[in-house]
Amino acid sequence: DIQMTQSPSTLSASVGDRVTITCRASQSISSWLAWYQQKPGKAPKLLIYKASSLESGVPSRFSGSGSGTEFTLTISSLQPDDFATYYCQQYNSYSRLTFGGGTKVEIK
Amino acid sequence: EVQLVESGGGLVQPGGSLRLSCAASGFTFSRYWMTWVRQAPGKGLEWVANIKQDGSEKYYVDSVKGRFTISRDNAKNSLYLQMNSLRAEDTAVYYCASVYGMDAWGQGTTVTVSS
Fold first, then answer.
1. Which residues pair with residue B73 across a beta bridge?
2. Among A11, A24, B13, B113, whose Cα sits 20 to 30 Å from the Cα of A82?
3. Rounded to 5 degrees, what angle do the CA atoms B68, B71, B75 make?
4. For residue A41, what are the contacts with CB-CB under 8 A and spacing of at least 6?
5. Which of B33, B52, B105 is opposite residue A44, by nearest beta carbon?
């Protein structure tokens, strides 16, 4: 089974900061990786699909990169609405979906 | 507008059963693999099960194999999760989702397993 290791688990940052979250897959998943944002009591919201494609309507300060086993989500200038929990998700196979453990972005 | 609406959650005793439903609208339901994802209180997202467009392939996380059954009715644009032999650790918000080819999530339905 493919494991997804996400780091850090918590991140303290200020408005305007550049923020980077990393996700590592235990084996190659090509570019079949998505990033989600989740706020308390809400369903996850898709930000990035296929590792680097920006979902329609998502601000351009969000970007994704990587392929194979190493991936990153970058927020170029953190905004107040961005304080949330972020998850990576591999969808390389129909037989199993795997999420990273999550990164909570907190106000510094 | 693409919409997924879950129902059927509630409080159930350990060992009991529940059937979750998910009503889909705004897209061609029969074209997509469908997924159940859950989130225990204060925890991360956990995949539960996937089902192919025609229902011919089904996959489950190990912890629910033999207890949960995913199914669909394309004529009714509906997805289901039959949950038997429920345990306290199954307590979670359960989301119906499409994540392959098109991304959509329901608002979630809460399942609480407690005596």
1. B78
2. A24
3. 160
4. none
5. B105
